[in-house]
């Protein structure tokens, strides 16, 4: 009986030491950076991109670039995001991050949403993107693609008229840029490229 008791105590002590050792070796979960939502977080230069995602419009061919930009400096930062699509093409979107915090992609916000035309991209996938700020090293990250399936993202879905999804019942602010695939195709035949411009928020172009 004493032997069994000692063995049990030794075993318990061993388990305690083993568990303690694991806690010393394993990284603390709270110290690992992560985006607490469906988007991604990227830092390039003095620009912090938080919770970036691409939300498909009603056509499924153009994507609203939604994120919060944080500029900790005192001057504007020009952020360029180059996104791969169609196997070999790139779509480029440019954003001006003013000092402080700015929300991009909200039809009801101060900044006009920027739609990016992307070929062969479906909700649930990710798009390889390259983040650039002048004078800084380029940062590569994959941006998740979503649609209006989830309630929290429906306000960011742009309909064919260039407004927020009409299923919400409220019209969006004027001036939201929408991309008409047919008109873009006609423009492409002459210029070889399509463009979607957002006033104040940035410019998106596909090659």
TrEMBL record:
<protein>
    <submittedName>
        <fullName>DNA modification methylase</fullName>
    </submittedName>
</protein>
<feature type="signal peptide">
    <location>
        <begin position="1"/>
        <end position="25"/>
    </location>
</feature>
<dbReference type="GO" id="GO:0008168">
    <property type="term" value="F:methyltransferase activity"/>
</dbReference>
<keyword id="KW-0489">Methyltransferase</keyword>
<keyword id="KW-0808">Transferase</keyword>
<feature type="region of interest" description="Disordered">
    <location>
        <begin position="160"/>
        <end position="207"/>
    </location>
</feature>
<keyword id="KW-0732">Signal</keyword>
<dbReference type="GO" id="GO:0032259">
    <property type="term" value="P:methylation"/>
</dbReference>
């Amino acid at each position: 009986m004493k032997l069994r008791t000692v063995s049990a105590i030794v075993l318990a002590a061993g388990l305690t030491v083993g568990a303690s050792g694991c806690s010393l070796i394993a990284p603390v979960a709270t110290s690992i950076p992560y985006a607490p939502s469906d988007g991604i977080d990227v830092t390039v230069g003095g620009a912090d991109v938080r919770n970036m995602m691409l939300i498909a419009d009603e056509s499924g061919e153009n994507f609203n670039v939604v994120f919060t930009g944080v500029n900790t400096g005192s001057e504007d930062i020009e952020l360029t995001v180059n996104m791969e699509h169609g196997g070999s093409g790139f779509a480029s979107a440019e954003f001006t991050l003013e000092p402080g915090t700015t929300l991009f992609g909200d039809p009801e916000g101060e900044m006009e949403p920027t739609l990016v035309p992307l070929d062969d991209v479906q909700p649930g996938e990710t798009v390889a993107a390259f983040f650039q700020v002048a004078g800084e090293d380029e940062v590569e990250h994959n941006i998740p693609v979503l649609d209006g399936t989830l309630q929290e993202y429906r306000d960011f879905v742009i309909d064919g008229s260039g407004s927020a999804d009409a299923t919400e019942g409220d019209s969006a602010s004027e001036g939201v840029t929408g991309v008409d695939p047919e008109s873009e195709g006609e423009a492409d035949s002459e210029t070889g490229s399509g463009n979607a411009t957002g006033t104040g928020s940035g410019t998106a172009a596909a090659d």
